[in-house]
Amino acid sequence: MKNIVSIQLASGSRSSELKRQRRVVTVVLWIVQVLLASIFLFAGSMKLMMPIEMMTSQMPVPLPGLFLQFIGVAEVAGALGLILPWLLRIRPVLTPLAACGLIIIMIGATVITLLGGDVVSALVPLVVGLLAACVAYGRGQHFVTVRGA
Predict the structure, then answer these.
(1) Position 10 in a domain
(2) In this structure, what are the phi and psi dihedrals at residue 100, rounded to the nearest 5 degrees?
(3) Residue 111 lies in a domain
């Protein structure tokens, strides 16, 4: 009888530890998602509001104006996609997909910055892309565990 009680207590403590770890991961993911959404909402809205000539003059490798506006729309959509589906619980699978789209944008930003010859500045889009990859992985794991179980 003592063995059964001790086994139940041990499994109960493992379960509570697992729940605590999941809460910590959820909080960290939310912090990263809000941070990324803020960054992309700002960057995307600036690409949509600034005159094209001003944007291209500040870039190491000038890109066509319509392409920059397309990137701005994609960044704003990605920022909303990082937060709204998971927050509203309406198609939350869109959150990791939005993060994957933002990873693609950050790969392009890193390459363009490297082509401009500024290796140190290329670290910023690289880190932002890695954070988006963490969100894509963390939120995508939810669907693997829920669907796979």
Answers:
(1) no
(2) -65, -40
(3) yes
**120 is in which domain, residue-wise?**
30-148
In a domain, 118, yes or no: yes
What total number of domains does the chain contain? 1
Distance between CA 134 and CA 86 in Å, rounded? 15
Q: Specify the length of the chain in residues.
A: 149
pTM, whole model, 2 decimals?
0.84
* Ordered per-residue pLDDT tens for the chain, 149 residues: 555 444 444 556 788 898 999 999 999 999 999 999 999 999 999 999 999 999 888 887 889 999 999 999 999 999 999 999 989 999 999 999 999 999 999 999 999 999 998 899 999 999 999 999 999 999 998 766 655 55
Q: Which residue has the tokens 């993911």?
A: 29
Residue 21 lies in a domain: no
